[in-house]
Amino acid sequence: MTSEATEEPEVVVEIEVASKTDVGQVRSANEDSCDIFERTDGTRLLIVADGMGGHQGGATASQTAVATIADLFTNDSSNSSEELMKNAIHRANQRIFEMAQNDPALEGMGTTVVTFLLDRNGQGFVAHVGDSRAYRYRQGQLEPLTIDHSVVAEMHRRGLISADEAAVHPRRNEILRSVGVLAEVEVDVAEVDVAPGDRFLLCSDGLTGVVSDEEIAAVIQTESPESAIDKLIQTANDRGGPDNITVQILSIPADREEGDPEATAPVELSEVGIQAIETKRRERKRARAFAIGLIAAAVCLGLYFAWLTLWSSGESDRAGSEGTPSAPNRAEATETPPADDRFETETGAEPRRRGIPR
Whole-prediction pTM value? Predict the structure, then answer.
């Protein structure tokens, strides 16, 4: 009697996706919108939109953007993925702009948009307008795939302010580009390399405003997409939840032969993140040296004025004993001009390029 060997059925590991939006702890309404769409050929699309223009206008703008982009994605497969994303955001811009022109209650509304498209061939594309972000996490490195279109980000890129200053700058919520505010908008689209084990994250600034890239990386590395989203939103809310919080994650299955590279990969930042950390360290050293210099200068000035006061008192006593008028006190006769503080900035000055208040 012979027995035939039975083959174990191959376990197919599917791409994991998760999406969630939360009102936060301060806002009374959620102006963020998000969704995930899939074609029959397996092409997937993730969208995050962060609306602005008041409770009604912001929510209307973000919902319209998601619906318009999804409609074109579902019904138009004639263009390349890159052209599709660009055309979809342009169409959303036109629709939102026209709605605002026809309804005074919606005047000035707009929205940020960030999208990630994974086509049937496994190629990725990111398109965005505004300061909602996309990241790729690969083997312990978290890499930003978008550049904020904001006033503060532009100042930081030009070297006018440090990363620490950008994080607390009073104009950090002003953006330079948005969907729907103007008749035309410039859309950034980029092709993105995709490999087994990669994880892609899209989010509004309600997350990145209070949770660092290092913290995001640590959570993405160890958690499933749904669990990671819950933890990231909870962290943002624990820190005050000052804005609406929206997070999406798409996880590519790891290569079965090589194992999961994320299981042992250390969490570290991309080269951009490392450079930012080094810049912060140098700035802290300069700040400490400057503070020490100020203290030393203050001590020297204090000693000088104390000596000058004693000297003037001695001169007055000698002059009085000799019956001659005392010499004028140089400390009183000479007014020390204020030092020019080149580190002081005029906070009330208007910038040359105004952003769009969120």
Answer: 0.70
